[in-house]
């Protein structure tokens, strides 16, 4: 009798438990599909599928890295290279909060001034400069904004009251460049006179403009493939169309690629070449040209020199209207049948014809 009562107690103390799988099996959904699932399984399945929002955030993250990292790396490289690659020479304060780079070699008179082609630094004279220095004093310089020279201060109402920072000429035009050169070699440094002005393309136009404004300083001019003001009006403006529809937009694209760091990447993997190349070009000059090509400041000035060319043509016309070309200055023009081998023959034909026609019209030859 006692044994029987204890067995009943044990039965009463053990509650009736339903297995977990039985509970799941009894749900209507599981009965319908014959599947077993838990709340954890359903949560795991939902979280394993990336949402559209997470995909977009991931893409934006990589896009931001691509946009931010190349310009940042390019900027740090430019800061490091600016001191390492600067050639012999000095930065001369010409006033207006602006400094121009100039390098002079040799001794004696006359002083030869070498002026680079449109949108190029003084590195183009790297092979010529030391050779002339064996005979007389010769100076190369970087125009405003090019190479290691400062960009010009823009005239504005805010600095008009302060004459120290006010230059009356529009930046990147012929008159401004001539005025900057005069202050560089006459005020910031006193270069011996007389001068032989040697210029290529836009540099040749600056030589002409300088001679018109300061004729007592100059004894000779050497013009290499000079830009002449009539070139845009010949043959239905073929040169004007090429200049404004091809050259300016291409340099604007290079300016953008320099700002975004793409130019540096292209140079590293060999997709781009610096403008001054050749077996005889020193390695430091090649490295410096790559530096300039990757520098937004330099490329912005290249664009501006091309963009304001019509204003420069207009100014040189006005100079010859005011007074004739000085008769005491001898002129040598160096050009060939082809202005540039990469240009269409029609452009080369117009250029060679217009150069000599312009020289005769202005009574320079």
Order of helices and strands: HHHHHEEEHEHHEHEHHHHHEH
Structural class: alpha/beta
Q: What fraction, in percent, of the residue positions are helical? A: 40-55%
Oligomer: single chain
Determine the number of helices (DSSP H or I, runs of at least 4 residues).
Answer: 15
Instruction: Tell me the major beta sheet.
Output: 7 strands, mixed
Rounded Rg: 36 Å
Mean pLDDT reading:
83
Strand element count: 7
Widest sheet: strand ordering: 1-2-4-3-5-6-7
Q: Which range does the strand content fall in?
A: 5-15%
- As residue ranges, the low-confidence spans are 1-37
Write the layout of secondary structure elements.
Layout (H helix, E strand, L loop, with lengths): L1 H12 L6 H6 L2 H6 L5 H9 L4 H33 L5 E6 L2 E8 L5 E5 L13 H5 L4 E4 L15 H4 L13 H15 L6 E6 L1 H12 L4 E7 L13 H22 L2 H7 L14 H11 L2 H12 L1 H14 L7 E5 L10 H17 L4
Parallel strand pairs: 3-4, 3-5, 5-6, 6-7
Antiparallel strand pairs: 1-2, 2-4
Helix pairs in contact: 8-9, 10-13
Description:
- It is built from 15 helices and seven strands.
- The chain has 365 residues and is an alpha/beta fold.
- The protein has a seven-stranded mixed β-sheet.
- The termini are far apart.
- The model is unreliable at 1-37 (pLDDT under 50).
